[in-house]
Structures are given as structure tokens and as C-alpha cells.
Amino acid sequence: MPTFALERLDLMCRTVEVSALMIDGKSEYQQFWADHRKDNFTGMLHKLETRLREVAELKRLPKAKWRKLTPETQGVAEFEAKADDLRMYCLKIPNKGYVIVTVGFKGEQNKDIARMRSIKTRYLQELSDIEVAENKSKRNLPKS
């Protein structure tokens, strides 16, 4: 089972924290940056970061730039940031802020959304397992 971690990103957000999801020590977001740094996608990647920063600063964006993918009833919301031919997929996790899961191309949205949801399920399961383990260890501590 993969291990997950969050790496805080310095997007100069003061309101809501923004992080990249690390899976086994690697971030798909950072890997996409590295793979496409010399392509013509650098400007689009900056646009995606700007959209995320604006949302983290509580600004409202039109659906053409930022859209919610999940219904209101789910505790962890999924979002898609759009910039020309690129898409960034994020989660908004209570007490953790926005978490970038993956980045992909416009034509691969269905595959990328399915991948993000699969990663989300595994990540939330790991968080749940950690919480259960912590609660068990607290109950087993000797009373002082």
C-alpha cells in the first residue's frame, strides 16, 4: 500500500493552506512540472497555480476556470482548475486545505478524474487508519 504525505507549497496563500500530495515520496504535480518545464505548458501551469491561489484566498472564479466536481454532501470536495489545455485536480480537506492530486491534459479528463478519485479513496483510507490507530493507542495508555 502506498504511503502518503503532504508537501506544503509556497503559493503565497495566507488564508487556506495549499499542498501537493506525495505518494511514496513523489508528487504527480511536481513531476508534471519537471516533465513539461521546457514545453509550452509553463504558462498554463502558472495559470493553474494562480487559479488555486485565488481560490485559496477566497476569491470566486467562474466555472470556466474552477469547478467543483463533487456534490455538497461529501466531506472532501474535489475540484478541477482549468487553463487552456491543462487541468489540475485538487481536494479540499477539512483542516488541511487544498491538496493538489494530479495534473493532466484536457482530452484525458475522464481518466484523470478517475485516477484522482482512486488516489483520494486510498489517501482518505490511510488517514482513517492512522486516526483509528491513534485512538487505540490513547485508550491503551496507562492512566496517571
Secondary-structure blueprint of this entry?
Layout: E1 4-8, E2 18-23, E3 26-27, H1 28-36, H2 42-56, E4 66-68, E5 77-83, E6 86-93, E7 97-105, H3 109-139
Parallel strand pairs: 2-7
Antiparallel strand pairs: 1-2, 2-3, 4-5, 5-6, 6-7
| Major sheet | 7 strands, mixed
- Average pLDDT works out at 86
Q: How many beta strands in the DSSP annotation? A: 7
What gross morphology would you assign?
globular
Radius of gyration: 17 Å
The number of helical elements comes to: 3
Can you characterise this structure?
- By secondary structure, the protein is of the alpha+beta class.
- It has one domain (4-139).
- 38% of the residues lie in helices and 28% in strands.
- It has helices at 28-36, 42-56, 109-139; strands at 4-8, 18-23, 26-27, 66-68, 77-83, 86-93, 97-105.
- Strands 1, 2, 3, 4, 5, 6 and 7 form a seven-stranded mixed β-sheet that branches.
- It starts with a strand and ends in a 5-residue tail after the last helix.
Condensed summary:
The chain has helices spanning 28-36, 42-56, 109-139; strands at residues 4-8, 18-23, 26-27, 66-68, 77-83, 86-93, 97-105. By secondary structure, it is α+β, with helices and mostly antiparallel strands.
Give structural attributes.
alpha+beta, 3 helices, 7-stranded mixed β-sheet, 144 residues, globular, 7 strands
